[in-house]
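dude i think i finally got it to work??
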Amino acid sequence: MKFKFLVLIFFVGLAGFLSLHHGLLPYRMDMAEQDPHSIQSTSGQAGAPLVDVIVPELSAAAQVGKKQFEVSCVACHGANAAGQEGVAPPLVHIIYEPNHHGDQSFYQAVRHGVRAHHWRFGNMPAIEGVSQSQVADIIIYVRELQRANSIF
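look at this
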């Protein structure tokens, strides 16, 4: 009887610890509070931006990246990488912070495409005709936008 009680106490304590531990992980809490699958534009209209993006004064390198982004990425990811309702996700979002999606993930996405895993927009196809140096320019632009929007 005493053993069963101790086992019960252990599991109740473990469940409490796990609940508390989950609550102490701010990244996971941010993700839960900001469920990326439920992000919708305020208008709800197809093609509407999904997030508001603060656009900083861009460095010369980021301006080059912005031009390339506008040629290769804006049709899906929208102006200033704000995403588009029903089309593609915003790149100015915590999901794409450097610690979660490093620069290499952008190179891989352009070269090989991406199977849908964070969003419900479907798979991203590979993007033809974009060189590694052009992707590097795009990354500089996106990272400057992210930093201006408190995504580190």
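The chain is about 50% helix and 0% strand.
im so relieved honestly
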